[in-house]
Amino acid sequence: MKRILLCVIMVSVLMGCAVTTKSIYPGTGITFDLSEDGVQILGKVIACQGGYCINDETGRAEWPLSLVTPPPASTYQAALRKKAAKIYNVPEGQIILGEIDVGFYTEIVGTIRGWTATSIVGRKMIKSFIDNN
User: Fold this and answer.
1) Neighbouring C-beta atoms of residue 84, cutoff 10 Å
2) How far apart are CA 78 and CA 88, in angstroms?
3) Which listed residue, 79, 91, 119, 125, has the most CB atoms within 10 A of its CB?
4) Are 45 and 119 in contact (CB under 8 A)?
C-alpha cells in the first residue's frame, strides 16, 4: 500500500512540472512584416530559457526559472533575434520576426520553470542590395 501511495505521489510531482501552456505574441509592432517586399525568409528559429532548455554554447541543461508571471514579449523577441543572427550570420538589426509561439513549462501552482519560443524569421534586405540583384 505504501508503494502505491509513493508511486501516486511521485507521478503527481513529476506531472506537476510538465504542465505546458502556449501563448502567441506578435513579432514586433514597429518592424517590417515577413510578407513585405525586401524581406528574405531565412527559416524557423527556436529559443528557450530555464528548465528543459539545453544551452547552445555549453550543451548543458539550464537551471529552472522561478517566475510568478511570464516575462514580457521583448524577452522572447530578443532571444529569437540573437539566435537567428548567430545561426544565419546576419546583423541583429536586419532580423525580422514573424508571429512568436511561446510554450511555458509550469508547476501545478503556476510557477514558470522554463519557456520555449518559436518563430519564422526573415532578413530585411538593404535597398541598394535589392536594386543590384
Assistant:
1) 26
2) 15
3) 119
4) yes
